[in-house]
Fold these 2 entries.
Entry 1:
Amino acid sequence: MIQKKRVLSGVQPTGNLHIGNYLGAIRNWVESQAEYENFFCVVDLHAITGSGNYRLELAENTRRTAALYIASGIDPELSTVFVQSHISAHAELAWLFNCITPLNWLERMIQFKEKALKQGENVNVGLLDYPVLMAADILLYQADYVPVGEDQKQHLELTRDIAVRINDQFGNKTHPVFKLPNPLIRKEGARVMSLIDGNSKMSKSDPSDFSRIHLLDNPDAIAKKIKKCKTDAERGLEFDNPNRPESHNLLSLYMILAGKTKEQVISECETMRGWGDFKPLLIETIIATLQPIQTKYAEVINESGYLDQVLANGREKAAEIAFDTLKSVKSAMGFLI
Ligand code: TYM
């Protein structure tokens, strides 16, 4: 039997997941899940690197995120769904990586610089170290592929650099310690932009709720957000005009969610007089995409014991591989095993 290639990815359980998380990551996990051996974790250890007080919501958000994976189409029979903090090997491997990762590799991470600027005085060491923990998540499972949105590309490059460094220092040509993982970044949906500023990424941490559509937004909220979203007064609707980022973002969202080609959308929009004609179509398409996810989510959350069982099974399966890898890395690094 041919061994399936292995996939690992994760989302932070901070606030509600939005359509950027769905299109950049989760939808792609679902589409390829039969082809690969999959590990999808809820990265709760990453979620405590922010500056807010998370304690009251962390456990609940972790459950909600796992439920949204399943509601979006992740099948626990085909994919291992688990919580990062349930497997202590993630934090332990991150420590081993800390001691071989040059500080300046982390200081040049774009996301660190952006988040550090936003968090002001409240920058903890964890925020800087965040990509090292992400490298541990991936390498612990010897993942072949990591499906993510475009904003994670630099973190994937760092993961490969860490793997190469460990292989060079502690492996040998015939027995590298780690496989080098490859990012899987789709062209479409890899960077969904904010609804109130077409030049910035849709993000969970944007203070305005109107900047994003949550996967659990009801039809009224979706309609309100799209009606209020930023557009421009130019004539016609067009893709790829750098001076009209909002136009490109809204048309792209429609194209992906409606499953249409660019040409189809262009010809559909040709006869439209403006945004007033287009927005109802986009609202309808978003509602139609999210409705089945929301129905399934309610089932998953309300079925007593179901989610806990999925996460317990996931924990067991993930632990087996993770602690095996950790042991071989420690042995390669010279620890007394
Ligand atoms: P996070 O929680 O910020 O985002 C989760 C996933 O959603 C993608 N994404 C987007 N895609 C398109 N458009 C957007 N506006 C958008 N916003 C977010 C992200 O690229 C990501 O794929 N560091 C990661 C979590 C992580 C991880 C890992 C991912 C931790 N360990 C190991 C893969 C493998 C993060 O903060 O994602």
Entry 2:
Amino acid sequence: MNVLVIGGGGREHALAWKLRQSPRVDRVFIAPGNAGTSQEGRNVEIRPSELNQLLNFARQESVGLTVVGPDEVLAAGIVDLFENAGLRIFGPGKEAARLESSKSFAKHFMVRHGIPTARFGEYEAAGVAKAALDKFEFPLAVKADGLALGKGVIIAHDRHGAEAAIDDMMERRRFGDAGRKVVIEEFLSGVECSIHALVNSRSCLVFPTAQDHKQLYDGNRGPNTGGMGTISPSRHLDAGLLKEIRDKVLDPFMDGIQKDHLRFRGLLFPGLMLTKDGPRVLEFNCRFGDPETQVLLPRLKTDLLDLLEATITEQLDAITTEWDTRCAVCIVMASAGYPGDYETGKTIVGLEKVEQVEDVKVFHAGTERRGDRILTSGGRVLGVTAIGDTLSAARKRAYEAAEKIEFDGSYFRHDIGSI
Ligand code: AMP
Ligand code: GLY
């Protein structure tokens, strides 16, 4: 079977790498991919926003399964487009993808189906939002309703900060149309974690746990990023807590999509806060996490194609999944300036030194090939993943590998998996 992976980051490199290992996969296409994915299959020069071109390509190349990485492509309705054309694709339909692309849609879904989440209000005018601040205590969270590259949440510690965030989103439209509506939420404290589960209308298969490190600097300080590193398993989730999450979040979610007739055959990745009163859902992501995928897939022993296919054919119950019991750590190497403005076009050296190292895999994110050089082309450049018998062994191996790779202005955190 030919498969098409849509996207060009580290998550998509990991998906393409794993799919290529399937004995049933003939060709892997990645649109648009990066320098790393070109070693797993063929990069295709189509932007993820060009849905009709992607459809034409999938038809021409007899693609048997398309896997979508980025949330905005799901929100644009690619799953409906492909399915209406009779092509198989992994991901939620456009309406179900609103669980990620609209915070207020997700909040109403949670309230309707009894899924624990923070108390909230939604507002379509700045004046009304500001007046409503009286109903909350500080700190509180101000959220742009739509997709904002993970930057649309401001934790405000006082009225001044909250009003500035509301103005920024609603008046100055810092996140464009994503800020037409805002959600204001009570602040939750606790440990943050997330889970990944394959979901269709009949069943749900939960992956081992993973944990992201979202802040830029060591000690979980500095601005939020797309993710600076991950570990798997997480150190905060035990079997008891997982059972509670299944009972309070996943089971009601499965009931909810049935009752609301939401077409969801893809990956559900809820972000959770483990509060003293139990888990609360912060958000739903409807796609694989980046860089969570870079620690989950190296631990997966089962054929990923089997899993993705079983999700869309509603046969997940028939599958036994095997995971490597060892630990994985992924260190993200970023360009200087990320998550703000960053430079690109820097030559990356040292990749060949880690290519042959056992239990280490470098997933490319913002890279491009120019002749025989590999250059940086994005904020997050590489994800260096290592496996080890213990978390600290995996950590040590990942850092030893990351130290061998260099580019101008390269930055990574030094405490992934030890905080
Ligand atoms: P979200 O995109 O909704 O997951 O929010 C991004 C980040 O903001 C989360 O990962 C949390 O760190 C933080 N956050 C969001 N909502 C809340 C909340 N109600 N209380 C505390 N922190 C929050
Ligand atoms: N690592 C966080 C995300 O993919 O949203």
